[in-house]
Design goal:
Layout: H1 2-10, H2 15-31, H3 35-47, H4 53-71, H5 77-97, H6 101-124, H7 131-134, H8 136-150, H9 173-188, H10 195-215, H11 222-235, H12 238-250, H13 257-274, H14 277-284, H15 296-310, H16 315-335, H17 338-353, H18 360-372, H19 376-387, H20 394-407, H21 411-424, H22 428-448, H23 452-468, H24 475-489, H25 492-500, H26 512-524, H27 536-552, E1 554-555, E2 558-559, H28 562-576, H29 584-595, H30 602-619, H31 626-634, H32 637-652, H33 660-670, H34 680-697, H35 700-709, H36 711-714, H37 718-730, H38 734-746, H39 753-768, H40 772-785, H41 792-805
Antiparallel strand pairs: 1-2
Length: about 800
């Protein structure tokens, strides 16, 4: 009600009264924390064409400010970028719509201030920001300074050596103050030894000097004078900086507490640059810590200890001073505000940079300092440089370098240093540890970027460790990882042999049974219509192995868990359900032993139900499986989808004229699929299976548009390609079907069920389109090279084609 009353009241105001009322209303919204309402109000006012100029400027300023404030408290990078962009776009939109010189000048000044605000915030938090965002501070400062230069006619270029006054008189002191402050901020972001930095500092000194001279040197101007003293100190003019600070110190009692603290900080910094550490310490301890902002005392002490370390003292005193600084930083990191911690870390980085070009002991020192500064990449470089000097502590240095590189994802560098140090070290236990850590770094590098080159490097290091240190305590860990690597490469037999060699007493042995079963499953890819043919002999060996393990309750001499036992039985049944082996009856009998197990859990039953249904349909497609269908429909959604896939697979083994009963079962299962209960990959698979079910049922509407329905899947899914080919056969588009089947077969592995079906469909389409000679030649090649023809069901269908074609 209050908001509505205020809005109604403001509608009757105009001119200065309306601006004043708007300002009061916005202040009240801000005081109450109603940020969203404030922004909506500003946006509506700016959207109205009749909003007066003065009020538009106020609304734009407050909306831009609110968005910027929210950006500075937002942790999510994309959201923060969006808020900063909207903050600047608010100003840009007003600039684009007005030609009023005075208004444009105000808006340009506002934009410069906003860019400087973002630059300062980014600079203050850069260590915690993504590199792309952290590097933007300099660009923001430069753009802000360029805008301000445009508002100061006659002002020299930002990087000019000239100190001439503007041709049209001294600019407004607040504008000069802003120019000086931004030039100083930009100088501090610029490399210390660069010419640009010196030019920017001179520009800052000039602008800030003019600002103080135009408004008078008084305590109300303390912030400008502090900036001026800092610019003078950084420029190397310590005497002038000292005089500026002395002027402020004389009126110290009139300063606000924040200005007094900053004054002491500038005095301490100036004294430390002169090497007057005792006087700096006296100032530091002249006021109680309770009168300082949190973290300020710690930050100054870090600077003091680093200054003491830089004096020409003994190495022991140097180490003691830096240890004191580290102790202060440790305490600061526990209790201090983040801004103070970041500034302290920058002091450590600056100190480290001073010793990076000296001798190996100094490299160690620099590395430790970079590490405490939160600069792991620079720390790693220093540790590595020292390690390569072949000193007595090269093992520790190499491990420290690798640890820091790993923090920033430089696993390859870590791997190379550890491996080369291992080959250089004579002591066996250290060499073994280094090579082991090198292999682990190679593993992390491969995990981050699974390229062939990185896999080979990982393989090479594991093999080298096994060869060089056959009796090392990590030898079984190496064997375990080699097994996982062979599994990833697809060498399942080798993976199984490696895992079997791990003794049952080893801590990793508990994972071996499950891994061996996974390797068996990977070597077979059972029930995958795109998998290559498993020979009957190989299948018999695998089935016998699994049967022996289940009977003995062990895998590779290791105890088999209840879950492993169920997995082994299910895997054995899946092998037997391969339609190319013609052994579905045995699979069904095995699955029945699990179905009757009262200890079976819900997950096991969900896996068993689709397999049982599939097995019975392979035995006899006309059998009554209504109870099995009910079990699949009662299972979890992924199990229902698997049931639909397998029933479609069973239908595809049959001639089109004999599919109706199995397709009816598929349609019943399809009615129970809820895609919103599946993940993205499962949802895509469900879409293909549902369309395939309709194609197999002869749905004319789907047959006519299957290619467009599955347009997004045809390029990557053989199942979708098969659906399109079957639709072509079903609508007598023989040539199109043949083209699709040829395309599909070229991307399939030979002897897979789907490859056999593609060959069968191609022969049928060629025959029906009148290309009988080509069909006959293709069938003869298949009969000669692959006499098994994909199992009994498909073999019968090939034989029917032979009868149609004749010899």
């Amino acid at each position: 009600m209050m908001v509505a009353w205020l809005l109604a009241s403001m509608a009757m105001l105009s001119g200065a009264e309306e601006v004043s009322a708007t300002e009061l209303y916005l202040w009240e919204l801000e005081r109450r924390g109603l940020t969203e309402l404030l922004e909506i109000y500003c946006e509506r006012g700016l959207a109205a064409a009749d909003t007066p100029t003065e009020r538009r400027l106020l609304l734009a300023e407050r909306l831009s400010d609110s968005l910027a404030r929210r950006a500075m408290t937002t942790a999510e990078t994309k959201r923060r970028a969006s808020l900063w962009r909207r903050s600047l776009e608010t100003i840009d939109a007003e600039l684009a719509r007005t030609d009023d010189v005075r208004l444009r000048r105000s808006l340009q000044l506002l934009r410069a201030q906003r860019l400087a605000q973002r630059g300062r915030w980014t600079s203050g938090w850069r260590e915690l920001l993504p590199p792309s965002e952290a590097s933007r501070a300099v660009d923001d400062f430069r753009e802000s300074l360029t805008l301000l230069q445009q508002l100061r006619p006659g002002e020299a270029n930002t990087t000019s050596d000239e100190d001439e006054a503007p041709s049209d008189g001294v600019p407004d002191s607040s504008l000069q103050r802003l120019v000086g402050n931004i030039a100083l901020s930009l100088a501090e972001e610029t490399q210390e030894t660069s010419r640009d930095r010196q030019m920017l500092l001179r520009q800052a000194v000039k602008a800030l000097s003019e600002a103080t001279s135009s408004s008078g040197v008084d305590m109300a101007n303390a912030e400008v004078m502090l900036d001026l003293a800092r610019a003078q100190r950084l420029l190397g003019d310590d005497a002038t900086a000292g005089r500026t600070l002395a002027t402020l110190h004389e009126g110290r009692s009139d300063l606000a507490s924040d200005d007094r603290q900053r004054l002491d900080g500038e005095r301490i910094a100036l004294l430390l640059e002169r090497g007057e550490t005792d006087e700096a310490q006296r100032i530091l301890e002249s006021e109680p810590e309770r009168d300082r902002q949190p973290g300020w005392m710690g930050l100054q002490r870090v600077a003091l200890f680093h200054a003491q370390a830089n004096r020409p003292t003994s190495p022991a005193e140097q180490v003691e001073s830096e240890s004191d600084a580290i102790g202060v930083l440790d305490r600061l990191e526990q209790t201090g505000p983040m801004q103070a911690i970041l500034q302290a870390r920058r002091l450590f980085a600056a100190q480290a940079s001073k010793v990076t070009k000296r001798n190996p002991p100094e490299w160690r020192r620099a590395a430790r300092l970079f590490e405490r500064a939160g600069r792991p990449e620079q720390a790693a470089e220093m540790f590595a440089r020292a390690a390569r000097e072949r000193s007595s502590d090269q093992v520790t240095l190499a491990l420290d370098a690798a640890r820091n590189w790993s923090e920033v994802g430089q696993h390859r560098k870590a791997m190379e240093l550890l491996a080369e140090t291992s080959r250089r070290v004579s002591e066996e236990s250290s060499a073994s540890r280094l090579l082991w850590e090198a292999a682990r770094a190679a593993n992390r590098a491969y995990a981050a970027d699974p390229s062939t080159e990185r896999m080979e490097a990982y393989d090479r290091l594991l093999g080298e460790h096994r060869e060089r240190f056959p009796d090392d305590r990590r030898r079984h860990d190496v064997t375990f990882l080699l097994g996982k690597l062979r599994h990833a490469e697809g060498d399942f037999a080798e993976a199984i042999e490696l895992w079997r060699s791990i003794p049952k007493e080893h801590g990793l042995a508990k994972h071996v049974p499950t891994l061996i079963l996974e390797a068996y499953r990977g070597s077979l890819e059972p029930l995958d219509a795109t998998a290559p043919m498993v020979t009957r002999e190989r299948a018999a060996t695998l089935v016998n192995d699994l049967e022996a393990w289940v009977s003995a309750g062990t895998i590779g001499r290791l105890p088999m868990s209840a879950k492993d036992r169920v997995d082994a039985i299910i895997l054995r049944s899946m092998i037997l359900l391969d339609p190319r082996l013609d052994r579905p009856r045995e699979a069904v009998e095995l699955l029945e032993t699990l179905s009757d197990d009262p200890q079976g859990d819900g997950e096991s039953r969900s896996r068993i139900a689709p397999l049982m249904l599939y097995g019975k349909l392979l035995q006899d497609p006309r059998s009554d499986v209504s109870g099995d269908v009910d079990k699949v429909l009662a299972a979890r959604m992924p199990a229902r989808l698997e049931g639909l896939r397998l029933v479609n697979e069973a239908a595809l083994t049959l001639p089109a004229a004999e599919r109706s009963g199995v397709v009816a079962i598929a349609k019943r299962l399809a009615s129970g699929i809820r895609t919103d209960e599946l993940d993205n990959d499962q949802e895509r698979e469900a879409r293909i299976e549902l369309v395939l079910t309709e194609v197999l049922s002869g749905n004319r509407e789907i047959l006519a548009k299957v290619a467009s329905v599955l347009e997004d899947d045809i390029g990557r899914s053989p199942r979708a390609q098969e659906a399109v080919a079957i639709a072509g056969l079903g609508t007598s588009h023989w040539t199109a079907a043949a083209e699709q089947l040829r395309k599909m077969a070229s991307n399939l592995r030979k002897t897979s069920p789907l490859w056999y079906r593609s060959r069968l469909g191609l022969i049928e389409s060629l025959r029906k389109s009148g290309q009988t000679e080509e069909a006959r030649r293709l069938l003869t090649v298949l009969e000669t090279l692959y006499p098994d023809l994909g199992g009994a069901r498909l073999r019968q269908r090939f034989q029917r084609e032979r009868a149609e074609l004749g010899r």
